[in-house]
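Tokens help. Our protein:
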Amino acid sequence: DLSAAVLELPTGGVPDFCYPAALDAAAKIRAVQDTGHDVLVFGCVSDAHPNYGGTYQALSRQSLRHGLWALGLVGKLVEADFVANLGDNAWENNDTGDSYDSWHSNQAYTRQAMTGVFDGSRTIRIPGNHDQSATVGNVYSYIGAYNLFDTAGTTPERGYGYIDLTDKKVRVIALNTSDYHGATGGYDLSYEQKKWFMEALDLSGKEDAAQWGIVILSHFPLDFPEASNYNTASE
């Protein structure tokens, strides 16, 4: 079982301690699965924050690669339903001026590291506040374009949407909590996203709606103290 899963992953340079850690996590998940209940299994990674040009850049990129590999192994052993990247794939807050090359470099590295392990899995990728860009197009090309949403937001390049896992009866809603005022950045939801979110929460159109659950993914929780505009309509 282990050897078959490992053979499906690129193993170069992965330290030995990743193996028992992944096996232990998979065993705990399987113990819950063996109870006979439907279990939603997903991997989640956030805030990689590679430090471009700094002392810890090589270490942060290496730890990201090793962590994703271990997460990928768990996903192979227990058949994960999806994997989510909740943002902050860069250390800088924008892609202009001196940070242009570093922003793009970190975004590309994080995306490639994740794609190398989870290429065959459903993926959800949403921006964090450190992924904000001078253009929405840049954020979409590095993050949003790799989402496998069943239904995207009112404007797909804004990077929010949902997937319906019908076998588990779960809707997974992914929000962009750095989406405001016609740009990407800060700590807010646009008015359009709030309206879409309320509609996405409505499962009344499903015949078995009472049996469904909802999982909400976001970089910031909706009660994040700096997100003063989450509960008000912004233009």
Summary: The first strand starts at residue 42 and ends at 45. Residues 178 and 186 are 5 Å apart (CA to CA).
